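Re: the request from the purification team.
They wanted to know what the chain is likely to look like in 3D before they choose a buffer screen. I agreed to run a prediction and write the result into the notebook, where they can find it.
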Amino acid sequence: MRFAFLSSLLASSVVCVLGDAVITTFPDSLALGASFDPVIAAYWTGLPHHRRTPFSVSPDGKSAYLAYLDSGKKNVYVQQVDVTTFAAVGTAFSTAAYEAAGLVAQNDGFALLATVDATGTTDIPPNDYPIVAVIRVKAGAEVWRTPMNGPGVHAAEGVSRNATLWIKQFVDLPQLTATPDANGDLVYSETSGLYAAYFVVTGYTGDFSGHFGDSIQYVDDSGSLQDIASSSVFGCSHNTGIGLEAADAPPYASVCAEDQGSIWLNTDTQYMSGVKIANENTTNGVSGEPMGGMSGSYSNLALFPGTTSYIFAWQSRGALDLTLNAWLGAPYTQCSPRWLNHNVAIATTSSKNKLTGAEASSDIGAAEGDSQINWITYSDTDDHQNVHVAALDSSTSLVSWETLTSPTCEPVPLSCSGTFAGTSFQVVDSAGAKVGAVTTSTDVTVSGDMAVVGGKICWPYVNQVWDLSAPKDTGTLTQKMSFACAAIDGSGSETNGSVASSSSLTTPVSSATSSGGPVATSAALSTIAETASTSEALVSSAPSSVSEVAAVAATPSSPIPSTMTTIVVPSATPSAEPEEEDDTCDAE
């Protein structure tokens, strides 16, 4: 595939119908009502991650909303966004909060998942820890606010109802939780009329006090917290990876990445069990950020519209040498990494609780524990992170990730630093097959939820130089948000703006047999063991028993505004080798 364009066309009004998909960008299109810091430091390493900007489109496709935390980190703003120009519509709603953790647009407003102060005078969380609440807003005004945890919320239940082992041991013991960092998401099902929130928690009363886990809670259209079996008060241990997507009835489809060695399709269990998606190299207190880590866990699990099938995408170091997890016992396993860098992996499901392919192995002594994985990238030299996926229709999805070259990857399963080489996009069908080729842009990142807007997949990002070379806990403040959209129907586009040239590059996938790069050597694996043995000082408390581990509808497309830029990306037409296109276009 060639992407050269005649330089004379760059200054002209152009019509190109190449039969290829295109990415259009809307730089600085949305004026923010408050300044925004686009960087949040990663868990343990302090490396820069995108501070999440939740983005959602209403069921009727007529309105969209973007949520963001102001730079003072004390207020969350929710701004309505025009679905054609991605400019601000009206005045933003604001509320005192510390993190925007999820957003669901409705035809009459939106629901926001945010970390807020607990209220009351008794059983308040220690250390000024916030709790999570769902806040429903209609016509610009708050109509209800429902805490998902904190004082009085499921106070008599210390465990997931479906984790029968824990019910026998801890039923009716008080267990209150707080949420210092709201890794997680909020989704809604029109069929069931229920919102579901999935978020990280830490216990501050009862037997789980001081330990980290996760929680799934449901709330109805009136704001009533639902006392149903599909809820979970305390689930996966030290979960820094959450996937959640709506279904017609609870339990909704859910994925958790825990710190004991696995990623689970835990729809039926709400716990660190269920259908085993992957073996992952972890250490106590760290799940390895497979779904983005701090401010992550969004747009990792997507439902193909009109079906019961889902696609899940994450970053993985692969899995070698399965051993017994001595704390949990069989069939729980631990593993060594195949690489110290990460690659992009996907899994597809036929329903909310069943994979289309094989589960990950739990065979103690197996030399490989990742043979079931469908790899999108397979490199032992480059690192891949900030992985996301969105479904456009019943058979088409888009997977995105960032690539780092010359990465430095520590043996503890955490992030890598390196040279940012751009954001890549790969079309994937509902069977998990790659369609067309990968294209990378150095101008676009993904820092907010990917959603369908007018027949395209769109998302927010900050127009900035993205630097992943060293730890960084703050970025350059901005009062502008940019948007990008991917049209992957091959219908072409019309624009009065400019057409991107050679900054759009097809990125080859490196062979995993290369001798270079951050491969998991025996010396590195020795360091892993040494680091894991000392990691106890960095986490609240290491489990010494099984019981303690558990504690631990698019609108029609409109003409593209003249302020946008266009990046031509590979065709979505399935073929073993994409056909070469005619690089010339007719100028008007």
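For the purification team: The chain has a mean pLDDT of 81.
Please add any questions underneath this entry.
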